[in-house]
Amino acid sequence: VQLQASGGGLVQAGGSLRLSCAASGLIFDDYAIGWFRQAPGKQREGVSFISSSEGRVFYVDSVKGRFTISRDSAKNTIYLQMNSLKPEDTAVYYCAAGQVIVTTIRWPSAYHKWGRGTLVTVSS
User: Fold this and answer.
1) 64 CB neighbour count, 10 Å cutoff
2) Would you list the DSSP string of 76-107?
3) How many CB atoms lie within 10 A of CB 110?
4) Closest C-alpha among 60, 53, 5, 59 to residue 31
5) Which of 48, 82, 112, 122 lies at a C-alpha separation of 20 to 30 Å from 12?
């Protein structure tokens, strides 16, 4: 099983990026998927999540109204559309999959499959 996040890059504040998470050996519809990020010197934090069966979506307060998570089942790909980016969004972004219940969907420890991250840099 492999997850691969892509789509990161350098963008000015106020700009947009769309991250993608592709999987091999895993069907995203069967898993909860989370986007996490880790800035230099900081702990990994959850950003956005989508549950497996119902496709419920969740966001942390700092990205609500700016980020949108979505799932394309046909392509077995998860997206994170990031708009109105801020310098504080700068981090390495990771996607993760797991058999996660909604009450623990925000916990990094609840996910057992992680992809390599993609760096997002937002300049001021």
Assistant:
1) 10
2) TEEEEEE-S--GGG-EEEEEEEE---GGGTT-
3) 18
4) 53
5) 48
* Phi-psi group of 76: left, alpha or beta (phi > 0 → left; psi -120 to 50 → alpha; rest → beta): left
Under a CB-based contact definition with an 8 Å cutoff, are residues 47 and 60 in contact? Answer: yes
Q: Which amino acid is at 45?
A: E
Q: Which amino acid is at 1?
A: V
Angle at 77 between CA 72 and CA 81, to 5 degrees: 80
CA distance 84 to 30: 31
Coil, strand, or helix at residue 18?
strand
Per-residue pLDDT tens digits of the chain, which is 124 residues long: 789 999 999 999 999 999 999 988 888 888 999 999 999 999 999 999 999 878 899 999 999 999 999 999 899 999 999 999 999 999 999 999 999 888 899 999 999 999 899 999 999 9
